[in-house]
Automatic annotation (TrEMBL):
UniProt xrefs under Pfam families: SMC_hinge (PF06470), SMC_N (PF02463)
Alphabetized CDD domains for the sequence: ABC_SMC2_euk
Gene3D superfamilies (UniProt xref): 1.10.287.1490, 1.20.1060.20, 3.30.70.1620, P-loop containing nucleotide triphosphate hydrolases (3.40.50.300)
Name of protein: SMC hinge domain-containing protein
GO MF annotation, one: ATP binding
Gene Ontology biological process terms, A to Z: cell division; chromosome condensation; chromosome segregation
Family as reported in the entry's similarity comment: Belongs to the SMC family. SMC2 subfamily.
Region feature (Disordered): 911-935
Residues in SMC hinge domain copies: 533-651
Presence of keyword Nucleus: yes
Basic and acidic residues composition bias: residue spans: 922-934
InterPro entries per UniProt: P-loop_NTPase (IPR027417), RecF/RecN/SMC_N (IPR003395), SMC (IPR024704), Smc2_ABC (IPR027120), SMC_hinge (IPR010935), SMC_hinge_sf (IPR036277)
Length: 1176
């Protein structure tokens, strides 16, 4: 580590900021005229390194270091040294990672006081930190062996042998040891003188006094024992009297309190009964007034009830009549419906019979006409056969070949048949043309019909899908687990639970919580991460009663600890007390620090043997395992007994002797005290805590049930919404299906499909007509062929057929004239009768339908009237129920008021009697209380006298109360002891004990001091002998090394010469060293034989040899070559440049022989009152 930059600002002659850069790592020289500021650079370097001995920088105080002492406007001096720290082997401790280290020291003048400030790498540091940094690299600025200032060379020249030895010892590090050793020997001499003085004091003064005082002490101790016995016996007698008086006073005071309490209770009871009597009288008057008011209200309600009842009866009667009329109308409507159905059936039957009859009549008439036509044909044929002629009429009327006699008849029929064939052929052609037209029309529409059918198929599929989706949605809606009745029941349960929680359970919990406010701790979190679970709460809340009957005993056993607050550990307790912001004074029980009071097993076994009804208080409470220590702290060591006798046995039995509490709250203590007689307030607290715990549990249960019901309601709401949504979607899907069906029936595609079906029907019809025409044509053609054959056969059969024709004609005439005419007449008569019956049935059917329509209108009117009457009856029934309920309530209220009035009268008489009894009891207790108070006052006066007489010792011996002894024997023994005590006190030295203790302590102290002095003396001598041996080894080693370097360096400075340090006494190196010089081939015995320059070279050689023995990273030399000539200066510069390569040298010199060997030369100059530095 070496200096590579120095920044001076306001220091001595450097008024302005001066930066000196480019320092060499080995040899730097500074030159300049006198007064230019050369040495100020070295002073600045020493200043920044933290020098405190200002004489080394030629200053008396820090103000001298500021430019012109701050008079020129510069009030601050600052020097910064920048060190190169690239060589990590020489790096300061903790700065190995820094390649560059800057140290700054500033002083500022203000208020007449100079202030120091140190910085390392720009960070504020202390002087000690800067010194540590520098000392870690052998730069101790307060013992600066690396700093050789002006005048030190001259000082070395005048040194004596012991001073040369001191320089070697300083280099070896043993100089401080010599100083400490000399100081130690001086201390030993002082301690030996003190030792002799202590020994003489012990032999001549202290030991004789000790023997004399031991005898005086023995006599004094015997007197003390006698005095103690007299005093103890006196105190015991006084305490006996005091105990007796106190027991009497306690008895009288207890009786007085009992009578006072009884008097107060009696007076309070009498007053309470008087107040209760007044309250009862007021209640009776109030009941009478309320009875009067309620009578009026009852009468009004009774009247209103009668009116509503009358109205309800009227409405119900009218409704029953309407309902009866409605039933009759329904029966009449059913009869009309049946009659109309019968008429409709009759009309249908008659119409069917008429149709059948008309059909038979038509068939009969057609058969008659056919037979008449056949008669005419036969007559024409017969006439033709008879006359031999056939005319047109005969040809048209006759049948058979004979009828067609004559060429004219057959020819006409044949022509007619041929004409029919032509007509049927034309009919067939017309059918074919229409059929072709229909088929063409169907062929033109068929493609469109296919597309329309396809589109209709899509709509039909959509309709089918819609119907399926509608059914699916309806099934899903029916599958949803939703019940309106269950929803209403859950809502009712929710309302009941909420009402109980908010109107009953939670107000009860808050009321109990207010009563127990003193058992809760209010605090704020002492820290952000504070865990409130570490505050466990009040003791009263941390346990439950196993036996409620023992609540009063447990409350008394716990006492004030019942209200202590249990915390997890003492840290939590301290945080609460210090930063918890507690509003009231509380006592904390840390679980980690409390000491439980368990009952010893032997005592517990003895208590159960001698008093079986005894139970440890800790067994009567139930608590969490973590609270075991806290419960043992509160209830441990206390027994609970059923009766006072049991408590006495458990408390005062020698094998038990434990504190006991009865179920009534009386406390028995082994010390002899007994308390009780009044119920403990804590008992109420425990009962309230139990009630609060039950109320809290009920609130939690209600909240849990309410949460469950709320979740069920939420599920029901979700299911209700789901059911409603599915039902709505199903309805919407039904509507969509209905719209699709309407669209399907009204669109063009449907009409197109219908027209195609119509064309198919027409085509079938035309095909049937074509087939019929073909069949008729074929029949006409067959008839033409038959007529041709008949005409050919006519001539052959004419004569044979005439007789048969006449017979057949006569028979047909008889049938037509006789049978057919009668039958036809009968058929016409039946047909007319059927038509008359059908007309009559149709009129009856129309009349029935008109009656049904009229009846339906009447039924609709009656239905509206019935609905109105039902609504009115319902409203009136509600009013009737409400009036009946109000009337019953008022009747019950009147009955309750009458009963309450009778009970209040009876209670009033009873309370008056009790008030008189309580007043008499109060007077009796007042008289007894006055008597007991007078007895208490008398015993108190005697106690005060005893307390005043024995005030010096009585307060400290009250614990002896309750001791039982023989007072008469004790008084006789006291008289004997008092006589002996008076004789012994006359020749007694009362201070002998204190004097002996003081002298013995003094003797012991002196003996200890003697031993300590002897031991310390031996240890110091042993240590000195050991260190002397180490010192001589180190001193000899250093002397030899420095001597070697000393001769070598002197030989370099003055070639051909050498020198050395020799001991003045070869047998003892510690007697001193002196310099021997070899010059000119001769050893000089004295330095006086040398010139001034040679002596300066010897001094410089010794200084440099010491520096070489313990090298530092930096050396500062200030004009050490002042006494040297040019050649010796040159040699010294050459020596520094070649021999000290591991350290940086900064040398101030005025001689060219020195700085010509330097690697860097700085020249200082002084201009305008300010120093400047230039690097060359």
């Amino acid at each position: 580590m070496y200096v590579e930059e120095l920044i001076i600002d306001g220091f001595k002659s450097y008024a302005t900021r001066t930066v000196i850069r480019g320092w060499d790592a080995q040899f730097n020289a500074i030159t300049g005229l006198n007064g230019a500021g050369k040495s100020n650079i070295l002073d600045a370097l020493c200043f920044v390194l933290g020098i405190t001995t200002l004489s080394h920088v030629r200053a008396n105080n820090l103000q001298d270091l500021v430019y012109k002492r701050g008079q020129a406007g510069v009030v601050k001096a600052s020097v910064t040294a920048v060190f190169n720290n690239m060589d990590k082997t020489q790096s300061p401790y903790l700065y190995e990672r820094q390649d560059e280290i800057s140290i700054t020291r500033q002083i500022s003048l203000g208020g007449g006081v100079a202030k120091n400030k140190y910085l390392i790498n720009g960070v504020n540091k202390t002087h000690a930190e800067v010194a540590d940094l520098l000392q870690s690299v052998q730069l101790n600025i307060n013992n600066p062996h690396f700093l050789i200032m002006q005048g030190r060379v001259t000082k070395v020249l005048n040194m004596k042998p012991q001073e040369f030895l001191a320089m070697i010892e300083e280099a070896a590090g043993t100089r401080m040891y010599e100083e400490k050793k000399a100081k130690a020997f001086r201390n030993i001499e002082k301690k030996e003188a003190k030792l002799a003085e202590i020994t003489q004091l012990l032999q001549n003064e202290i030991l004789p006094k000790v023997n004399k005082l031991k005898e005086a002490k023995r006599q004094f101790l015997e007197f003390q024992k006698l005095d103690h016995e007299v005093r103890q016996l006196t105190e015991t007698l006084v305490l006996y009297d005091l105990c007796r008086l106190r027991r009497a006073r306690r008895t009288h005071r207890r009786q007085a309190r009992r009578h006072a309490r009884a008097q107060r209770e009696a007076v309070r009871a009498a007053r309470s009964l008087a107040d209760e009597c007044e309250t009862l009288q007021a209640s009776i008057r109030d009941h009478v007034a309320r009875r009067t008011d309620n009578n009026t209200t009852f009468n009004k309600l009774e009247s209103a009830f009668a009116a509503v009842k009358k109205t309800l009866l009227q409405c119900q009667t009218q409704l029953e009549l309407r309902r009866a009329s409605r039933d009759e109308d329904a029966a009449h409507a059913a009869a009309l419906q049946r009659q109309t159905q019968q008429h409709a059936a009759t009309v249908a039957q008659l119409a069917a019979a008429l149709d059948q009859l008309q059909a038979r009549t038509g068939d009969a008439r057609r058969a008659l006409e056919a037979r008449r036509a056949h008669v005419r044909k036969l007559e024409a044929r017969l006439e033709a056969l008879s006359t031999g002629m056939a005319n047109k009429h005969a040809a048209g009327a006759a049948d058979g070949a004979d009828a067609r006699a004559g060429s004219g008849g057959y020819e006409a029929e044949l022509q007619a048949a041929r004409t029919e064939v032509g007509r049927q052929a034309g009919q067939m052609e017309s059918c074919r043309m229409r059929l072709a037209h229909f088929e063409k029309e169907r062929a033109s529409r068929a493609p469109h019909v296919a597309a329309a059918a396809e589109q209709m198929k899509g709509m039909q599929a959509e309709i089918a899908a819609g119907e399926a989706a509608c059914a699916q949605l309806q099934a899903e809606a029916d599958a949803v687990d939703y019940s309106a009745e269950e929803d209403a029941a859950l809502q009712q349960r929710h309302d009941q639970l909420a009402q109980e929680l908010h109107q009953s359970a939670r107000p009860r919990q808050r009321q109990l919580e207010n009563q127990l406010s003193h058992t809760f701790i209010q605090y704020r979190d002492p820290s952000p991460d504070f865990d409130r679970a570490d505050v466990l709460g009040c003791v009263a809340h941390l346990f439950e009663l196993v036996d409620p009957a023992a609540s009063q005993a447990l409350a008394v056993a716990a006492g004030g600890r019942l209200y202590h607050i249990v915390v997890r550990n003492e840290v939590v307790g301290r945080l609460l007390l210090e930063r918890g912001g507690l509003k009231r004074r509380v006592t904390l029980i840390p679980l980690t620090k409390i000491k439980p009071y368990p009952i010893e097993p032997a005592r517990l076994r003895a208590s159960r043997q001698r008093a079986p009804a005894v139970r440890p208080a800790l067994d009567l409470v139930r608590y969490e395992p973590a609270m075991a220590d806290a419960m043992a702290f509160v209830f441990g060591g206390t027994l609970v007994c059923d009766t006072g006798d049991t408590a006495k046995r458990a408390t005062f039995d020698p094998s038990i002797r434990m504190r006991s509490v009865t179920l009534d709250g009386d406390v028995y203590d082994p010390s002899g005290s007994l308390s009780g007689g009044a119920p403990a307030q804590q008992n109420d607290t425990l009962q309230t805590v139990a009630a609060y715990r039950d109320a809290t549990a009920r609130v939690a249960q209600l909240e849990h049930e309410l949460a469950d019901v709320a979740q069920a309601l939420e599920r029901q709401a979700h299911q209700r919404d789901q059911h409603a949504a599915l039902s709505k979607r199903a309805d919407m899907k039904r509507h969509e299906v209905a719209l699709l069906k309407a669209q399907l029936s009204s669109n063009k595609e449907a009409q197109l499909v219908a027209s195609l079906a119509h064309l198919d029907a027409q085509i079938e019809k035309e095909q049937a007509a074509l087939a019929a025409a073909a069949q008729a044509k074929e029949a006409a053609e067959q008839e033409c062929a038959a007529l041709a054959r008949d005409r050919a056969d006519y001539q052959a059969s004419r004569d044979t057929s005439l007789d048969a024709l006449e017979k057949e004609l006569a028979a047909l005439r008889r049938q037509v004239n006789d049978v057919d005419a009668v039958e036809m007449q009968q058929q016409d008569t039946a047909l007319e009768l059927a038509r008359t019956e059908l007309a009559q049935a149709e009129r009856e059917y129309a009349s029935s339908q008109a009656a049904i329509a009229e009846h339906d209108a009447l039924v609709a009117a009656n239905t509206d009237t019935t609905a109105q009457l039902e609504a009115r009856v319902k409203t009136t029934q509600l009013a009737y129920d409400r009036a009946e309920r109000d009337l019953d309530q008022e009747r019950r209220t009147l009955s309750t008021l009458d009963t309450a009035s009778r009970e209040l009268e009876a209670t009033l008489q009873l309370r008056k009697h009790e008030q008189s009894a309580q007043q008499r009891a109060a007077d009796a207790h007042a008289h007894s209380h006055a008597e007991e108070r007078s007895q208490v006052q008398a015993t108190a006066t005697e106690l005060a006298r005893l307390a005043k007489t024995h005030a010096a010792w009585l307060p400290h011996t009250l614990a002896s109360l309750g001791i039982i002894f023989d007072a008469d024997t004790a008084r006789a023994h006291l008289e004997q002891l008092s006589s002996h005590h008076g004789r012994a006190s006359r020749n007694l030295d009362h201070d002998a004990v204190h004097k002996l203790d003081r002298i013995e302590k003094q003797e012991t102290g002196l003996q200890v001091k003697l031993q300590t002095l002897q031991r310390d003396k031996e240890q110091i001598k042993e240590t000195i002998q050991t260190l002397d041996a180490h010192k001589m080894e180190k001193l000899t080693e250093t002397w030899e090394k420095v001597n070697s370097e000393f001769g070598a360096i002197f030989g370099d400075l003055l070639p051909g010469s050498t020198c050395k340090l020799v001991a003045t006494d070869p047998a003892d190196l510690t007697r001193g060293l002196e310099v021997r010089v070899f010059i000119g081939g001769v050893w000089k015995n004295s330095l006086t034989e040398l010139s001034g320059g040679q002596r300066s070279l010897i001094a410089l050689s010794l200084i440099l040899a010491l520096l070489q023995y313990k090298p530092a990273p930096m050396y500062v030399l200030d004009e050490v070559d002042a006494a040297l000539d040019l050649s010796h200066t040159q040699n010294m510069g050459h020596l520094v440049a070649n021999r000290f390569k591991g350290s940086q040298f900064i040398i101030v010199s005025l001689k060219e022989g020195m700085f010509t060997s330097a690697n860097v030369l700085f020249r200082a100059r002084f201009a305008d009152g300010v120093s400047h530095v230039d690097r060359t």
